[in-house]
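Lecture notes, continued. The same structure-token format from the folding unit now serves as the input rather than the output. Read the line below as a description of shape only.
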């Protein structure tokens, strides 16, 4: 009896772990979106797009405190402080639900985030942000002019 159990344990131990189920037979993945298409989609899907800074670490199950430094879309005012949940973002890894929670973000992390509903740390890359500006979806950031220049 013990030999059978030992053999079974060895057989299962040597098998590779499966993270995701395979796609159904005949499945063809759709072509990826362009940067401009992705930017337009994120803009349409999001009620809020802001630039801000984490005032405390955010990790799975524990929201962080976040200060708004610039609002691109939405009703949040500059200087507002909100609680915000970590997130896998707009392009999560395959089978993210099987991996566990999203990675933690440290205090002091800054960036542009977009969400609908409850605040989430869904990063918007510089490339996507530039595309939103190029398409006229959001206003460009005006650079401050130095006096005496």
């Amino acid at each position: 009896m013990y030999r059978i159990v030992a053999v079974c344990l060895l057989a299962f131990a040597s098998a590779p772990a499966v993270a995701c189920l395979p796609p159904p037979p005949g499945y063809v993945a759709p072509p990826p979106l362009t940067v401009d298409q992705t930017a337009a989609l994120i803009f349409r899907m999001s009620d809020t797009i802001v630039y801000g800074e984490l005032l405390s670490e955010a990790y799975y199950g524990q929201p962080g405190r976040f200060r708004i430094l610039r609002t691109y879309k939405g009703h949040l005012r500059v200087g507002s402080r909100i609680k915000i949940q970590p997130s896998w973002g707009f392009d999560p890894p395959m089978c993210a639900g099987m991996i566990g929670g999203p990675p933690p973000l440290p205090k002091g992390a800054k960036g542009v985030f977009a969400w609908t509903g409850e605040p989430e740390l869904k990063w918007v890359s510089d490339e996507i942000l530039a595309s939103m500006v190029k398409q006229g979806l959001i206003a460009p950031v005006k650079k401050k002019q130095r006096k005496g220049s």
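Point for the exam: DSSP finds four helices and six strands in the chain.
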